[in-house]
Amino acid sequence: GINAEYMGIFKMIIQQDSPKLFSELQTKYQKIQSYFPHLCHIMNVVSVLLFALSMLSVFYSFLALDSEKFFSGYIWTVLTSGFFETNFPYLIFHLLVINLGAKKLVNVWTQKNFLFMLVLVITVTGTFHMFCILIGRQIFSGYQMTSPAATLNIIAIIILMGLRQNCYELKIVTPIPLYKGSLKIPFKYLPHIYIVFNIVFSVFFNGAIDFRLLEGAYFAWVYLRFFMKRELADNEGDGSKNFSFAAFFPAAFARIIDPISNAIHNAARKIRVIPDTSSIKTGTMLDLSLIHI
User: What's the sign of the alpha-carbon dihedral 273, 276, 280, 282?
Assistant: First the structure.
């Protein structure tokens, strides 16, 4: 509140009147931060450790998400199931996403805000998914809604949504050669590519779509759009047009979705479910060192 406002003013005055002093204070802050384990390192250790433990059935049943066990009291599994992977190739891929993307986003969100978002979105997504299964079983006899019992894809989609938000105009320059240079992948399409890849992989190899990925993508967007605090900007949320809900769809669909989503979000603002972020904009917040792989 007031203290944060005064600190913001103090930081602005120092940065304008004494750039050298500001630089020294920033260096000292970074040194202090370096004494603490980086969130990405912790996530690496936790993911690998839980993957190893999941090889034992007793640990797997205790940590993985299962509707029968959830409703019988294993409520912690909505969180623990989002922090480990049972598929080794997926584990390697998700660790790459964490180490390449999350390290940069921590500089925008801070480790505390990033961790809070991970825990909140994973918990809300898992709980929502379990109650969708419960409602489906009440309405439709013999209803089945299966998803991987444990996966890092919610963490991955959170990171990719963050990269889209903060690197919207940038592109990844890959080493894949094309006729007119290397293949370039816009950051704004990373969530789409990941979701499509997961759906195709799930249908052909698992025989079922992972609905938690879609649910996690939506809840991640809601939190980033309306609630996330950023270290480089003294505000919450992101009201930019590029990060609106309709912006995630092709233009033909966006024209239909935009008025509907705006009406829903305006109604939610009026009853104060979500704050008004229409005047808050965000730009390219990350440095350019991320665009080459």
Answer: positive
